[in-house]
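The protein record filed below.
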Amino acid sequence: MATTTHLSTDEVFALFQQYVIPNYRRYPVVLARGEGVHVWDSEGKRYLDLFPGWGCNLLGHCPAPVVAAVQEQLTRLMHVPNTWFTAAQGLWAKALSERSFHGMAFFCNSGAEANEAAIKLVRLHQGPGRYKIIVFEGGFHGRTMGALSATAQPKYHEGLHPLLPGFSYCPYGDLEAVRQRIDGETAAIMIEPIQGEGGVVLPPDGFLQGLRELADEHRLLLIFDEVQTGCGRTGEWFAYQSFGVVPDVMTLAKSLCGGLPGGAVLARREIAPSLRAGMHASTFGGNPVAAAAGLAVIEMIETQSLLERAKAIGNLFLERFRELAGRCSMVREVRGAGLMIGLELVVDGTPVVNECLRRGLLINCTHGTVIRLLPAVTMTDEQVQEGCDILCRVIEDYAAGGLESKAEA
């Protein structure tokens, strides 16, 4: 069997064309390895990655402490079912609990799985007749059918009806609309404290606090989807800590395991037992390798003071991009919290992504016009400036009409 190191770019393309379902729009690049804030393609070209792992690689590619912990764990125990106890899973749950609201943890493999578990948990806890969940337009909670039904974006629903019933879609930031949707069958409110895929949208002042008050008033559970914002991304362990609003249930994934698959639900202690034995499970959830990685992530963030570093790097990015917005009318708005940064353009951002790729910079565009960056917290100041230099030049070239002419050439 051929090894991956001996395959050319064209050979990899041919394999995908013949054997891999084409459900992703892929860039015409074969990535071969990554280290820190860089990746290399199969031709040896190096890229500065400002969107590493789709937000999963907060610590950069192949962070040494996580790699070492995983390698050591792999020599002892790779997988056992959750009918057995493992020390690593218990310690991981304790570490997450102590850094959040002292709840209890359920482990799974992804953000969508975590949100599915949260949906089941709140329905079980609230009991028969209370099953509705209020969610928000522009939010994103995953691709499985329950999480998809909770995602109030019709473009993701095409061809997939009927969806799971019980989700009520409200405008993001509109407390009065939420109040009007609450009835005797409402069980919970589910929200991303900062919308990620929706365009790095921060909540209006008082909005999350208002949701907490409504939840308390009507005996609803408040679920924070922190799949993208959690585990240090915003400069706090969890984004809710920036707003002074504590959820009843919180879902995690992405940065949780430093680049390996992992997801979790944290729930307040009086709520958690409602996910009772036999009602939910995850075969690989909380496996020893994921737990070792998760513990190593927490240790690396704390020993290297990376929460503070996330805020500092985020401020560098915002400073550069706000300066760009001041001189380039193509940038409508700059938004950010820690290492979640969005530049909203007045035009389609796809040409910017493609040209940055050509110049050796990896970024993302979401909602058509928002350039989204989820950079690694291990970046140096010099690497931040390098990435900003490239992106700012590309946007200015775009504004001057230069990208179209290059495309035509």
